[in-house]
Amino acid sequence: MKIGFYTSTFNDRPLEEVVDFAASAGFDAIEIDVGGHIKTPDRVEDAVSLARNRGLFVSSITFFGNQLDSDRDKRRELRARTAEFAAAIGETGVPIFVIFPGRDDTTSEEANYDDFADFTNGLIAETRASGLTFAIENWPGPRDNFIGTTPKGWQELFRRITDRRFGLEFDPSHLVRIGVDPYRALEAVKDRIAILHAKDTAIDREALQTLGYHSRGWWQYKLPGLGLLDWPRFLSRARGYGFNGTLSIEHEDAAYGWPSKDLAARKEGERLGLDFLKSVLNGL
């Protein structure tokens, strides 16, 4: 497996600086954030070349946005932009384009799944020549209600999107905080994992007892190895299922400078994550 990180942790820094750090720190790969480091489809090729010239594998490009936005004009605009990025990414040979399904609160659950599946099937057809894979991250969204972020939701999507060029950017940290067993969840979708996000979650049981699930402050995202996930168990299972792709660290650990605080601390966090994941993989 390759080890990289998602550049959103450094969205306040120019991409050239970020890839220089990634290469010098010993990372194999990079996952580039559109909003922070690419901005427009015409800049995809330059961003990818910048990373590759530093010897980095560009594992994926990630484009944030609610593809089911209830505002129809915003939805059309985002989807048109998504299609433009997909075409540009496909031309570079980057293997994976990560998007977020979102949710339209004004319609039914089934309609949300149908709509997103229709859109994604269209993207897959339009990029057949490049073979680009599309993946969704199982982030529940700012209101914890995005579709396709639980085992049941994944099956709803896979039933509608049968092409294996659609899969998951599987992030166990989200599952830990919503009460889903990440090991069982991984097994159930083992043939649909496009990329793994390396992020952990810590839970303050006393705060949870006081505040309850429908509150804030009882859980925190952590760097891999600093939360509840058993990484040797998790990665051993992933490898056993045939996954040999990229582990992309998504650094959202407030103890190490996130978000956009001390730059040295953020870099230290990335290095700690890299060292930890290397040690786990070497021990498998």
Automatic annotation (TrEMBL):
The keyword Repressor does not apply. Residues 19-278 form the Xylose isomerase-like TIM barrel domain. Keywords: Isomerase. GO terms for molecular function: isomerase activity. It holds the Pfam family AP_endonuc_2. This is Sugar phosphate isomerase/epimerase.
